[in-house]
Amino acid sequence: MSSKRLLCVDDDRDFRQFYKNLLGSHGFEVTVASSGAQALKLFLSKKVDAVVTDLEMPGMTGVELASRLKKLRPELPVLLVSGAKSFQESKPDSVDAALAKGTATITLLDQIENLLAKAHAQSLRLNPRRFAPLGSVLASIALAAYTVPKILK
User: Fold this and answer.
1) Of 123 and 18, more confident
2) CATH code 3.40.50.2300 for 4-128
């Protein structure tokens, strides 16, 4: 994977700075947002490989944000970070993983790397739509091979 672009969403300025500093120092390109609405705007205007979002934010929760993002791009890895234990034990369907706020930084980094690796592996799976252009090219060649000799007669 060439570059790892993260969108980190938290209404707490200190956590946004923490994500920017920590993840940036580990080779991630980090964009931060202070709300779900701002995150959606940034997501639509920037290339994002994964999202790390807080659960409890004013206006739109992290779960609501994850649901909206997954509707736009179902394969997008979303990590929910929360102080609420219930979400860590039984994460909502719209998120791929959940961690407690204050989790060891190595655990956070490992979880992000695992989600990115899993998403990358899924994107490499055979998808018939990826071969549609090849089918068109082969059909054109076959058509030309059939018609050119008839034209040249």
Assistant:
1) 18
2) yes
